[in-house]
Write a structure and sequence with these properties.
- By secondary structure, the protein is α+β, with helices and mostly antiparallel strands.
- Helices cover about 40% and strands about 30% of the residues.
- The chain contains 2 helices and 7 strands, in the order αβββββββα.
- Strands 1-2-3-4 form a 4-stranded antiparallel sheet, covered by helices on one side.
- The protein starts with a helix and ends with a helix.
- The model has no long low-confidence stretch (mean pLDDT about 85).
Length: about 150
């Protein structure tokens, strides 16, 4: 009777943990594929990305040797990848809060004398799976790195 209980317990353990393990492995596989696609797309522009961060469905990366910043959204990666020469831009952190102090928007703003680019890292209406605090920390990290 004890062996049957152990076997039944093991069966239930496998049945309940297998889907979770499959989901985690699938997410890891998709992340690796996305990183590879970003690096390949950047390489077509002679950019060697040393550091890349993925979040939600967006990415940001830097080629420190050539002072090039690359950012964009994963679903439009084939169509458009933003490339900025960091020598021409200053970086500011945009943090917009509501009256109740909750974060509504987080963005990095790249300014040059001629133009301005804004890269949204968090929008409350769109980012239901992402933590605003985590995105704020990520934005602060990139602002410090690029300043």
């Amino acid at each position: 009777m004890d062996i049957q209980s152990i076997e039944l317990g093991m069966l239930f353990l496998i049945l309940f943990t297998a889907p979770v393990a499959y989901a985690v492995m699938g997410k890891s596989r998709r992340k690796k594929a996305s990183l590879k696609n970003i690096k390949e797309k950047a390489a077509t522009h002679q950019i060697n990305l040393k550091e890349i961060d993925l979040f939600s469905n967006a990415f940001i990366g830097i080629d420190e040797e050539h002072a090039q910043l690359v950012y964009g959204h994963l679903e439009s990666l084939d169509k458009k990848m933003h490339i900025l020469n960091l020598k021409n831009y200053s970086v500011e952190l945009l943090e917009k809060r509501k009256k109740d102090k909750s974060i509504e928007r987080i963005a990095l703003v790249f300014k040059s004398p001629k133009e301005t680019h804004q890269f949204d890292l968090y929008l409350e209406e769109e980012d239901t799976e992402t933590s605003a605090v985590e995105q704020l920390e990520l934005a602060q990290k990139w602002q410090a790195k690029l300043s």
